[in-house]
DNA sequence: CCTGGCACTCTACCCTGATGAGTGCCAAGG
DNA sequence: CCTTGGCACTCATCAGGGTAGAGTGCCAGG
């Protein structure tokens, strides 16, 4: 019935929101705890420091800000950043000039690996933090051609050409020696039956044929199918993710203890934790933000992660993002990650 | 004519040498400046601390040791380490047990890239420092087979198979469209003329044929040669070197300022400086050691680098080594690097 | 030439007091 | 009821000083 009611329903009244916002912005800019005096000057609210102290006290009680010690200013907590990001932040889209610069740096002529690396480089260069790109799932790459090359004895090199620009080699150990022309025949057979499918479909198709029509096939066809099975067997990709620009993380005061850096860099070399984190984002649509402990990985307690999935042919095939200190310029980082994901998707798409 | 003469001729008398050696060993072990008292106990010379102080004073004058401040012990200088390494150090070869363990971890079945990465991993794991391997020069890989695969329009994929296990892909842009069978013919032609050569020889051969017998050839042969020229044109390898285990460098107190770490890690991502350093070692035979500033690169002032070239088919094809603090256990590191180089060479060799 | 003794030097550590930034609370005023 | 100035208070930071400990350089005696 009163204004206080309104402010309850939105948890925070307008003044507190403005102050929290000013506080976060100031802290992100300066990296120093923000005092009531500074806020009085910068928030544009025409309040005395004393009043602001009262509000701060409330915010602290709500767990949105905290002070390192009695007589330091306030610093946003993870929760504070969260509220800021969710409802105080105005993400202004990048202007077209910046977008063009980003776009130019993602040359669709490159092969997938280089493209992905460029994207990660781009992210880390623009944000001055660590960039990462989960590489496209090969499952969705359209198979264009498959060839076999005899290496020696029972060793055969399988060459898969996908999406015009992408090539994969797999060395197979066969159960017996095949002649050059036999291999050629098998390749022809597989090409006829699998071209245009993506890798997963190809795998399924091979398995289907193998089970269903075994008896109707001649030896060659059977061998071809068996070969196909080997080619398309799920292989783990060891280079599933690219990280670049980790070095930038050394420049942030809040991470600059050697211990923290050590465990962060460990996470980058281990990859595992970060991979699982990225994989949880692959199903989300649009930008995801993990602030501090939200990521659930202890090494990232003082970090925030901003990710966005990217699409090829209308389907999500990967995720990219950045890692930096919780104290990052979200209003800038978020659109950068967002746009980069779209551009990478577009670049990958343009060649299919 | 006196003993002093003898000691001049070898620059240092026996006592001083023993003390320097004890000092280096103690400092490498403990990481603390070594006082005269400690030396008196550990050097096994039955001298009083006071006498040792006199010797230390001499060593300091010669620039072999220095003290961080008036009342700290002594620490070896780069020159001190140099003398230690050159003439005081006894490198005991690794016992066969350790060698076997190293050998087992270098599986010759792997392709070149994985093998090289294993070697670097091995170096960093065993030494607890950063490992690096300059990858084998492709020039010396024997060409086994060359195939062309039509991708789309004028795009052709060239596949080079070398040394049984190694495959290289290159995408070529042609001046006109070639049919499947034309490509096949050209591949046959090149295979006939180039098989068994290494890449450099192949390149030279192609250029020779191109110039010499141009008029005697039919169109197909000419086209084949031109294609060959494109395939063998010098391409820079961007992954010329592998670094692993940089994270270990964070554990050494003498490097643990964030600034130093930063510039070190920058050197690892830039690669350039380290590449040139490694390349100077490629012509040396056997283990090379750069202590502190000897490497000539400022970032490595507090580091030592130990390298060894490795051979395939009697020819040096690459270098490997480790980077760590100047305060490292040389008597252990040197044989490890030495053996690893031999083992990597052997592993690479066993598949040619 | 070696050695014990001694004065000296320098770091690391702790305690101290001063300074300044910033807070919490309160009572007065709109 | 909200705002505000005032005031006491807290705490980090810094400089100064004093002490303990490690280690040195030098000297005189063996």
UniProtKB/TrEMBL annotation, chains A, B:
Q: Domain (Heat-inducible transcription repressor HrcA C-terminal): give its ranges.
A: 114-334
Q: Which UniProt keywords apply?
A: Coiled coil, Repressor, Stress response, Transcription, Transcription regulation
SUPFAM superfamilies (UniProt xref)? GAF domain-like (SSF55781), Winged helix' DNA-binding domain (SSF46785)
Q: Which GO terms describe its molecular function?
A: DNA binding
GO BP annotations listed: negative regulation of DNA-templated transcription
A Pfam family: HrcA
Q: Provide the leader sequence positions.
A: none
Q: Which residues form a coiled coil?
A: 157-184
Question: Ranges for the Winged helix-turn-helix transcription repressor HrcA DNA-binding domain?
Answer: 14-83
Q: What InterPro entries would the database entry show?
A: GAF-like_dom_sf (IPR029016), HrcA (IPR002571), HrcA_C (IPR021153), WH-like_DNA-bd_sf (IPR036388), WH_DNA-bd_sf (IPR036390), WHTH_HrcA_DNA-bd (IPR005104), WHTH_transcript_rep_HrcA_IDD (IPR023120)
Question: In the UniProt record, does the keyword Ubl conjugation occur?
Answer: no
Q: Which family is this sequence assigned to?
A: Belongs to the HrcA family.
Q: What does this protein do?
A: Negative regulator of class I heat shock genes (grpE-dnaK-dnaJ and groELS operons). Prevents heat-shock induction of these operons.
Which named protein is this?
Heat-inducible transcription repressor HrcA
Biological source species: Ectothiorhodospira marina
Give the gene that encodes this protein.
hrcA
């Amino acid at each position: 019935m009163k204004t206080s009611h309104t402010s309850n329903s939105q948890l925070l009244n307008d003044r507190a929101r403005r102050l929290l916002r000013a506080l976060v912005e100031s802290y992100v800019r300066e990296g120093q705890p923000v005092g009531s005096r500074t806020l009085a000057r910068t928030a544009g609210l025409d309040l005395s420091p004393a009043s602001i102290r009262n509000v701060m006290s409330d915010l602290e009680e709500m767990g949105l800000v905290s002070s390192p010690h009695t007589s330091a200013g306030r610093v946003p907590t993870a929760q504070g950043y969260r509220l800021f990001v969710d409802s105080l932040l105005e993400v202004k889209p990048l202007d077209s000039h910046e977008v063009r610069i980003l776009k130019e740096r993602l040359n669709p002529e490159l092969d997938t690996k280089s493209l992905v690396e460029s994207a990660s480089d781009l992210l880390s260069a623009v944000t001055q933090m660590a960039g990462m790109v989960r590489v496209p799932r090969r499952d969705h790459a359209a198979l264009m051609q498959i060839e076999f090359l005899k290496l020696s004895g029972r060793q055969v090199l399988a060459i898969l050409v996908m999406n015009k620009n992408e090539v994969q080699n797999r060395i197979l150990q066969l159960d017996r020696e095949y002649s050059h022309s036999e291999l050629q025949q098998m390749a022809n057979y597989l090409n006829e039956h699998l071209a245009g499918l993506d890798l997963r479909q190809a795998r399924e198709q091979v398995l289907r044929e193998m089970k269903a029509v075994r008896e109707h096939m001649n030896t060659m066809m059977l061998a071809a199918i068996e070969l196909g099975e080997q080619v398309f067997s799920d292989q783990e990709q060891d280079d599933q993710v690219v990280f670049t620009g980790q070095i930038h993380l050394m420049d942030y005061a809040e991470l600059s203890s050697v211990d923290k850096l050590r465990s962060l860099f460990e996470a980058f070399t281990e990859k595992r934790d970060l991979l699982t984190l990225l994989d949880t984002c692959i199903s989300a649509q649009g930008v995801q933000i993990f602030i501090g402990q939200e990521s659930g990985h202890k090494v990232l307690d003082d970090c925030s992660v901003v990710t966005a999935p990217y699409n090829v042919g209308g389907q999500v095939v990967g995720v990219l993002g950045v890692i930096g200190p919780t104290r990052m310029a979200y209003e800038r980082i978020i659109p950068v990650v967002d746009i980069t994901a779209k551009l990478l998707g577009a670049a990958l798409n343009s060649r299919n």
